[in-house]
Design a protein that fits this description.
The complex is a heterodimer.
Chain A (H helix, E strand, L loop, with lengths): L1 H9 L3 H41 L2 E5 L12 E2 H11 L5 E13 L4 E9 L1 H7 L2 H4 E4 L9 E5 H7 L6 E7 L5 E12 L4 H6 E5 H8 L4 E2 L1 E5 L6 H11 L4 E5 H4 L1 H39 L1 H10 L3 H37 L1 E2 L4 H4 L7 E2 L5 H28 L2 H6 L2
Parallel strand pairs in A: 4-9, 6-8
Antiparallel strand pairs in A: 1-11, 1-12, 2-10, 3-4, 3-7, 3-11, 5-8, 6-9, 7-8, 13-14
Chain B lengths: L3 E12 L2 E13 L4 E5 L6 H8 L7 E6 L2 E2 L5 H11 E4 L11 H12 L3 H14 L15 H14 L4 E5 L7 H18 L2 E6 L2 H6 L2 E6 L2 E7 L2
Helix pairs in contact in B: 3-4, 3-5, 4-5, 5-6
Classes of the chains: A alpha+beta, B alpha/beta.
């Protein structure tokens, strides 16, 4: 009957109950949507960064990461043998020659990163295999073919089939240059990626840079992303000392910091939403309590202990919180799930967002621990702040309360 | 042992800088089974005395005991338990919880006592039958007349088998026929169950029904009349 009484009490003023329930629904919805949006955004940033060219793990010659120069290279034959021997069978890996270069045509020149790739293996490891939107992808025997990004094509005012000259430093510290023909144009999640990278075949890059049979980089994608640390440590132990192994967390320190920040950010977001919602809850409960001063006086006169009155008011709060958060959860989950398929198009903001590495379309992601945290916070903090109106109700003196008009 | 015993009770209300003496050394004893009316003009101290006997308020000096329980030595929690188990209340108005039905209002006080559901349901029905509200179980207070609401209040007051029922001007908001019916109900409960009834009243009819009439004036007992 305590429950029945509390339930009927909250419906004594349906409009007020409706308004506060809507406030809790919106609060819960915002918590779930906000966290889903941020999680989705960061997960995509990480996934994009990994797929762009990072991979789960990279192997370089010792010292490459501090000085990514062309002469800091690894012998291709030995690398191939080591990778085949030590990597899990189901993982993919790709060899690369990678160097900073200048791309120029008759009108413009622009600093780029030249990446020499094995077209078939690279398609398994990075985005480029599926990113070509004009022309064609590179073929294994393609000594003068080059892939450039859509944004770079616009910057250089060139187009498919036109020539592009790449210039860089070779292993002899001489200027190396080679003319390529644009065979494909790719589109990436980030315009920065489209401007930054140009792709040629590995033999073409090796020839241009006088790398002979050497590589700058091996990128590895594992079948199970959860095994990154374990595989990287095993690889580091087994490879000779002339190699260095780095995980994506090391290669992308900003992403790693973002991920660590997210938990705190989501907690603060939840608190901010709750504070706004909390004022509404306290206000509603106080109004409900002050409207019933005589009734509390009657209950105390009948022999109700103060704690029982606190319990009654808290039960009413819990019912409001459960009602509001249940609807809010359903609304929040539905919205997040729908948007996780359709995405939220931020292309209007993309120009500014590019610098932060944000994707153009965000796909919110539901994380159950976030949902549980939101609900626990709503319930526990909601109960916490309801203690104030409940204590006020319990403190009414029966004689004064009964005389209240 | 007397049902109620008050000795030299004083109660002063402080209104700004003025002290208003509601009771000035009231002493009275009510035996078990008494049917007693406190009469007197407004401000004479009737309701104050009733509230003090019910443990709803604390005297400034003097002592009060009900069934041998001296209030001066009891905590607020002990007083609440005494009210719950030994004292029934009927107020002038706003007696019932508006969101509960007549049956639930009567049951609720037994729920607070911890009476099992089946037993409290049976007892509530039985007592509502006794106060002639058998067909009003499911009606909420707003769907009952003033007299019917007071009957539910009486039913709730006596369903717990208290030793004393305190009624603050129970007929004040009722027409004379309804008031008479309510009084006869209370007389019957007093006679059948031996419950002590103490009223505060302005109503001549209530005074006529009382077997003892205590007349208060300016916070003192001006007249104490026993009737047969």
């Amino acid at each position: 009957m305590h429950f029945t009484l509390a339930w009927r009490n909250i419906w004594r003023n349906p409009r007020r109950t409706f308004v506060i329930t809507i406030a809790i629904v919106i609060g819960t919805w915002s918590m779930i949507m906000g966290s889903g949006f941020v999680r989705g955004m960061v997960e995509q940033m990480v996934t994009n960064a990994i797929a762009t060219l990072t991979g789960h793990i990279q192997v370089h010659a010792q010292g490459f990461r501090s000085d990514p120069a062309v002469h800091c290279s690894m012998p291709q034959e030995e690398v191939t043998r080591l990778m085949k021997a030590f990597l899990p069978a189901e993982s993919c890996w790709a060899k690369r020659a990678r160097v900073n270069a200048v791309a120029s045509n008759a009108r413009h020149s622009r600093g780029v990163t030249l990446v020499g790739i094995d077209p078939a293996a690279e398609a398994e490891v990075s985005f480029i295999g599926k990113a070509v939107t004009q022309g064609r992808y590179l073929e294994s025997e393609d000594p003068y073919g080059i892939l450039i990004g859509n944004a770079l094509m616009n910057t250089l005012e060139t187009r498919l089939g036109h020539k592009l000259v790449l210039m860089s430093e070779d292993t002899n510290n001489d200027v190396a240059s080679r003319a390529f023909r644009i065979v494909g144009v790719f589109q990436a999640g980030l315009e920065a990626t489209e401007r930054q990278y140009v792709f040629v075949t590995l033999p073409a890059a090796q020839e241009m840079l006088h790398l002979d049979d050497r590589l700058s980089e091996v990128a590895i994608m594992l079948a199970d992303p959860g095994m990154v640390d374990e595989t990287a440590s095993a690889l580091a132990r087994k490879l000779p000392a002339s190699y260095e192994v780095a995980t994506w967390q090391k290669l992308l320190p900003i992403m790693t910091a973002y991920l660590k920040l997210m938990d705190s950010w989501i907690f603060i977001w939840y608190l901010v939403i709750f504070i706004a919602m909390g004022f509404g809850i306290v206000n509603t409960m106080l109004m409900a309590v002050f409207e019933r001063i005589r009734e509390f006086g009657l209950l105390k006169a009948l022999g109700m202990k103060p704690w029982w009155i606190v319990r009654g008011v808290l039960t009413e709060s819990v019912l409001l919180l459960i009602l509001g958060s249940a609807v809010g959860n359903v609304a929040g989950l539905l919205t997040t799930m729908i948007l996780s398929t359709t995405g939220i198009d931020l292309s209007g903001l993309a120009a500014g967002a590019e610098y932060a590495g944000l994707p153009r379309i965000i796909y919110p992601s539901v994380r159950w621990p976030d949902i549980v945290l939101a609900n626990v916070l709503i319930l526990i903090l909601g109960l916490g702040i309801s203690l104030y109106p409940a204590a006020r109700a319990a403190r009414f003196k029966p004689v004064e309360a009964l005389a209240h008009t | 042992m007397p049902s109620v015993e008050c000795r030299d009770v004083y109660k002063v209300y402080h209104q700004g800088t003025v002290d208003v003496y509601a009771l000035r050394g009231v002493s009275l004893t009510a035996e078990k089974g008494a049917f007693l009316a406190l009469a007197g003009p407004s401000g004479s101290g009737k309701t104050t005395l009733l509230n003090l006997i019910g443990g709803l308020d604390v005297p400034d000096s003097g002592s009060i005991s009900v069934n041998g329980n001296a209030y001066g030595t009891m905590s607020q929690s002990e007083l609440a338990l005494l009210r719950l188990h030994k004292i029934g209340f009927v107020f002038q108005s706003f007696n019932l919880i508006p969101v509960l039905s007549a049956l639930e209002n009567v049951e609720y006080v037994m729920l607070l006592q911890g009476v099992p559901e089946k037993e409290r349901r049976e007892r509530a029905r039985h007592i509502l039958d006794e106060v002639e509200l058998a067909d009003m179980y499911d009606r909420r207070p707003a769907q009952l007349s003033g007299g019917q609401q007071q009957r539910v209040a009486v039913a709730r007051a006596i369903v717990t088998n208290p030793s004393i029922v305190l009624a603050d001007e129970p007929t004040a908001n009722l027409d004379s026929a309804t008031g008479k019916g309510l009084l006869e109900l209370m007389v019957r409960m007093n006679e059948e169950k031996g419950v002590t009834f103490i009223f505060s009243t302005h109503d001549k009819m209530v005074m006529d029904y009382a077997r003892r009439l205590i007349y208060l004036r300016d916070g003192v007992i001006a007249h104490d009349e026993k009737r047969t």
